[in-house]
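Supplementary notes (optional reading)

For those who missed the lab, this is the record we used. Protein: SRPBCC family protein. Length: 140 residues.
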Amino acid sequence: MAAPAADVWTLVGDFSAIHRWHPQVSAPTLRGASPHTPGAERVFGAGTEEELVERLVERDESARRLVYTMPDPPFPITNHRAVLEVVPRDDRHCTVVWTAMFDCSPETARELESVIGDGVFAVGLNALAERYGRGASASG
């Protein structure tokens, strides 16, 4: 990103505000603790059959990192853990890294790579790049 890590973190580091930067996500309902406190839950589609809950496990301000889980995922997966991190490259550029790890069958892994990897993570990261600019390549 062609922006300082602190600027990007101000936007993405708010666990309850993903809808402010991700074009395909509507505002979640917040349950429990404040959005900066482990245990906070953001709920998408609250009260519907498609309700999805993500629980904040860690928010590290100095590392600019959020770690969250899906306690009851709508997919046949276990041990879900996602990390969203803003890594400074220099004073004016950063890289946003968004990953998820979980256990599942190979078939489910292939399906979720498309649904979550391409349909959620890539779309969100591209929206951030559009907002801030892509910046210089890491090698040049």
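If you only remember one thing from this example: The domain at 5-132 is CATH 3.30.530.20 (Alpha-D-Glucose-1,6-Bisphosphate; Chain A, domain 4).
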